Amino acid sequence: MASNPHLARLRRICLALPEAHEKVAWNSPTFRVNDKLFVHYRNNHHGDGRIAAWVKSQPDAQMDLVESDPEVFFVPPYVGPSGWVGVRLDKKPDWDMVAELVEHAYRMTAPKRLLRELDPAEPPSAAGRSRADAGARSGSAPLQTDIRKIQ
């Protein structure tokens, strides 16, 4: 499978995350942490004409994105019912947004020890854990990747 600029840029974003790795599955690149999938690259999947990333997400975020820009965002087959969102990479997406979505997907998938590498050091709260750890558990931690370094 020949590389293309969309895949190269997506790969840089995904592999910049701690212990993320690439694995070919279903004849296309997937990006994983601890061998758990968080992004799947698809090029013309079953003739759909899209160059896209399927990104792990939550159903409410998926619907908000699809409604906000259906030209770029879509509900992908197979994984869409679980909340994943498709992002058309061939429709000039906002790559900052793509990086944020990828990092959010990573945060939903990665173990806590790796999430701590993404979050700046913060003093422990009264409950004995950092606000970053609490946010990572709830899935609401702000996205911290400096995307300028990976684009």
Throw out a few tags for this protein.
about 150 residues; alpha+beta; 6-stranded antiparallel sheet; Aspartate Aminotransferase, domain 1; globular; 6 strands
Question: Would you kindly provide a written description of the structure presented here, covering whatever features stand out?
Answer:
The chain is of the alpha+beta class and 151 residues long. It has one domain (5-118, 128-149): Aspartate Aminotransferase, domain 1 (Alpha-Beta Complex), CATH 3.90.1150.30. It is built from five helices and six strands, in the order H-E-E-E-E-H-E-E-H-H-H. It has helices at 5-15, 59-68, 95-109, 112-118, 131-138; strands at residues 20-25, 28-33, 36-43, 51-55, 73-74, 85-88. Strands 1-2-3-4-6-5 form a six-stranded antiparallel beta sheet. Strand 1 and strand 2 (28-33) form a beta hairpin. Residues 126-151 have low confidence and may be disordered.
Q: Percent helix among the residues?
A: 25-40%
Number of strands: 6
**For the residues shown, what is the average pLDDT?**
83
| CATH architecture annotation | Alpha-Beta Complex
The gross shape turns out to be: globular
- CA radius of gyration is 16 Å
Share in β-strands: 15-25%
User: Helix count, per DSSP?
Assistant: 5
Q: Structural class from helices and strands?
A: alpha+beta
Low-confidence stretches: 126-151
CATH topology: Aspartate Aminotransferase, domain 1
**Main β sheet profile:** 6 strands, antiparallel
Q: Reading side by side through the largest sheet, how are the strands ordered? A: 1-2-3-4-6-5
**Cα end-to-end separation:** 22 Å
Name of the CATH class: Alpha Beta
Oligomer: single chain
Number of domains: 1
Order of helices and strands: HEEEEHEEHHH
